[in-house]
Amino acid sequence: MHAAWHIYEIRHQIFSSLEPQDFARLARICSTLFTVCTDKLWARIASLKPFLHALPQDFRERPLTKQDVQRLNLYADKIQELDLEKESGRRAIRLKSKGLEQKSLKKWDELWAEIAALRPLSDFLPNVRRVCLYNVTADVIVPLISITGAKLSHLSINIYNPETNGAVCQFLESLADTSRLESVSLHDGLIPPKLIQQAPLKRLRLNHVFLLRSDQRRIPLCLDLLEKSTLERLSFSLPVEWCWPLIDTPKGKYLPRLQKLWLDLKHFEPERCSRCLYTKDLYIKEPGEQTRTHSGRYAPALFLEALDRPELKLLKIELPGDATPKMVRDVVRAARDSCQLNTFEDLTLGRSGWYSQCQECRDTVLPESKPEHVREVLSTLLPMPHLRKLRLSVPLNFVDSLDVAFNCEMANGLPMLETLKLDFRESVPLHHLAAFCSMLPNVTRVSLRKADYTALEEMPREEWACPRVQRLKIMDWDPDEDGEGASREALYRNLQTYFPNTELAKRGPE
C-alpha cells in the first residue's frame, strides 16, 4: 500500500467523497485498508442486524463457541455511536432457516445470554461514545446491560412504552463508569440516583422522569438534581408529585453554572383546575414556612427560588393552560430574583396544555388572564440588554391596544432584540404590531399566529413603518382567505407601508 494512505489528511480527503458500499469494497484490498475502512463502516450503527451478521449463519441452530463471537467482538470495538429507532430484537432475529421448526431455534434473550457466557458483558462496546434509543422495545436494551460506559459521553433515551422502563433502569444502573458522561436526555421513565450523583453532567434533559431509590421507591427529582453544580443546560418537567423529600427547607443555593434552562410546568396538575388545586394565598409564605399547595406539594416558584443567580443565556418556561395571572406573575418574579437578567439572549414564556373538564368541579376553566397582566409580567423582567430572541405563546394578545408608554418601555428594555415571535390565540392588528416593532431598533424577524384582517387602516401611518424587518411570518396566513376587493387591497397597502421589505409585502394583491 502506498505510504500516502498513512497520512490522516489524505485519507480524510479521499473518504469524504465515498459511500458505505465503497468502504466495503476497499476493506477487501489489504489488511491496512480493512482496519481503516471497517472503522468508518462501524463507527455508527443504526440497527441490530449487523450484530447478527457478524455471527455464523447457523448461530440459532447450534451452541456458540468463543471463536464464533470473535468477529462480533472485533466489530463491536469499532462502534462509537449506537442510534436505534423503533427497533425490536425479535424482528431482527427473524432470519430464514431451512428445515428447522421455529420452536427449536434460539430466541433473542437466549442468544445474548449465551454470548455473555463466552465473554464478559463489560467487554462489549468498550469504545461507544453516544447511545440514542428512540421508542425501542425492552429486548433491544438487553445487549447493552452491563456495558461499562467508560467512554460514553452522550445518552439519549425516549421511550413511550411503560413496559420498557424496567429494562432502561437496569441498563442505567449497570453503567459502571460514567466519568465522561456529560449529556443525558431521558423521557418518561426512571433513573437511578447514582447516575445523577456520579456523572459530570453538563447537559440534562428530563421529561416525566423519577428517581428510583434502592428500596424501589419512586420519588420525583429534587435535591439530587439541584446539587449538580456542573450543570450548564437543564430541561426539566416538574411533575405533579414534586416535593422536597427528607428536608424541611432548601439549604443554600444551587446550579451556579447554569446557562440554559427549560422548565416545563404544563403537567404540574393535569386533572384539576387551578381553582380546585390552589388555595387563595398559595404563594404568600408565612414567616419560617415554605409555600405549599393544600395537597402538601410545594409551589413551582420554589424551584426557581433555589437557583444561585446563574448567568442564564436562555430561559424557557411553559405554564399550564389554566394558570392564573398570580401563578404566572409569581413564577416570573422568582425567575427574575434568582437569575441574572442582564445575560439573557433567548427568552420564551409559553402557556399551553389542557382545557379539559376538571375532575373535581367538572367545569372547563379557561384562562383568566387579561392583556394588561401580560404587559405587567413583561415589565417585571425589564431591562434585558442582551436579549436577541423573545417568544411569547401566552393566550392573550398584549398588543391589543396602542399603549405607547408600554411600547417605549419595552423598546428601551430590549435594545438588542432581533427576533420576535407572538403565538397568541387572538388575532393581532397589523397597525398595533407595527407600532410596537417600529420602536425596536434591531428587530429583523417577526412571527405571529394570526393577523386581524378586519382592523385595517385606510391610511396607514408611515411613522410606524418597520423597514428593518426582513421577514414577517403569519402562521395562519392563507392567500386565498386574506380578504376580497377593497379589504384585500387594504391588507396589502398596510403590509407595504408597515413591513415594506418582507416577502408578504412584495407579493402584492393578485
Instruction: State the total count of DSSP E strands.
Output: 17
Our Rg estimate from Cα atoms comes to: 29 Å
Shape: elongated
Individual helix count: 19
Which class best fits the helix and strand makeup? alpha/beta
Helix content: 25-40%
Sheet with the most strands, sense and barrel status: 15 strands, mixed
Q: What do the pLDDT scores average to?
A: 79
Would you identify the regions where 5 or more consecutive residues have pLDDT less than 50?
Answer: 244-249, 277-296, 482-486
How far the N terminus sits from the C terminus, by CA atoms, comes to: 66 Å
Sheet-strand content, in percent, reads 15-25%
Structure description:
This protein is of the alpha/beta class. The chain has a domain of 173 residues. It contains 19 helices and 17 strands. It has a 15-stranded mixed beta sheet that branches. The protein has a two-stranded parallel sheet with strand order 14-16. Helix 14 packs parallel to helix 15. It is elongated. The N and C termini lie far apart (66 Å). About 6% of the residues have low confidence. This is F-box domain-containing protein.
